[in-house]
Amino acid sequence: MKNWIAVFSFSGRCSEADVDISRDVWIHYACMNPGTDFRQDRNLTKKKEGKIMAKVSIHPTNDFCPQTLFLYGTYDDEGQANFGLFCWFSYTWDGEMGVMACIGGNKLTRENIHKRKVFSANLVTEDLLPLADYLGNTPGFSLKKKAMDFETEEGRILPVPVLKASPVVFELEVRQFIPLKDGEVMLCGIRNVLQEDLLADEAESSAKKLAAIAPVRTTCKEYFGWDGRSLGAWGEPGKAVSAAES
Ligand SMILES: Cc1cc2nc3c(=O)[nH]c(=O)nc-3n(C[C@H](O)[C@H](O)[C@H](O)COP(=O)(O)O)c2cc1C
User: Fold this and answer.
1) Which residue minimizes the CA distance to atom 13 of ligand 1?
2) Ligand 1 within 6 A of 132 CB?
3) Structural domain includes residue 201
4) Residue range of the domain that includes 11
5) Total of domains in the chain
6) What is the tens place of the pLDDT at every residue in 38-48?
């Protein structure tokens, strides 16, 4: 009896792990030999001192759920490039792949996107982190940020500023604005993806390519390398840039 799918629901105590599982409904997709004890799979869950850890309920947070970081590039009314740091970014599917982005509060990036309906999303790497952190902690409305000079090029399809140093860039066109109480969700069409040519090398593994570009992830108000190293708390890597700016 191979290739079966089963839904198990039960209550009581798991003697093996001594953990109360009475509320759990275990949905177990398995392809295993008859007679295998499906409960053994739970051993894959986190253990501490040989015991399966219990969960605790906490206030809403996305701590321990790492996110990818992007610098959104827009042009302001004077045609000057502006970049802000963003992590509430993910993908959609509606016959083709799209992007969803959430911006909270009033900021220059949001204003610029509203006016022009286009922006670039530039993947943040370890090389870019000091600049990215600075741009994420310096409002676009401030004179300090306005005085910055970025190494940019023009998007290939859309009139958006693209950071030369970013290895992966989306050129995005907003198709739908969904206003919320304070923030806004933007559903975007991906008009173009720019990728550094080394990423197209089919002879190289994705693991090596990722290690080479070193994308930065964030959670718990901290930055992490692709290999899990801590790269500092929010506001730390950018100190080098603010010192150089002043
Ligand atoms: C790590 C990090 C992630 C951020 N992600 C977002 C985000 O997803 N959405 C948002 O509205 N602001 C986010 N911010 C805040 C903006 O980067 C910040 O408001 C910045 O000033 C925006 O640039 P602008 O003022 O030039 O528009 C983030 C800041 C940091 C440090």
Assistant:
1) 86
2) no
3) yes
4) 5-52
5) 2
6) 445 555 555 55
Would you say residue 57 lies in a domain? no
Residue 72 sits in a domain whose CATH number is: 2.30.110.10
pTM for the full predicted model: 0.83
pLDDT in tens, 7-26: 333 333 333 333 333 333 22
* Residue 137 and residue 32 share a domain: no
Q: Could you tell me if 217 and 229 are in contact, meaning their C-beta atoms sit under 8 angstroms apart?
A: no
- Residue 29: is its pLDDT beyond 90? no
Is 20 found in the same domain as 128?
A: no
For the CA of 109, the nearest atom of ligand 1: 27
The predicted structure's pLDDT at residue 204: 96
Instruction: Kindly give, in sequence order, each residue whose CB lies less than 8 Å from that of residue 192, ignoring residues fewer than 6 positions away.
Output: 155, 156, 157, 158, 170, 171
Indicate if 241 and 164 belong to the same structural domain. yes
Residue 112 parent element (H or E): helix 108-116
Residues 81 and 173 placed together within one structural domain of the fold: yes
Buried b / exposed e over 122-142, threshold 16 CB at 10 Å, is: bbbbbebbbbbbbbbbbebee
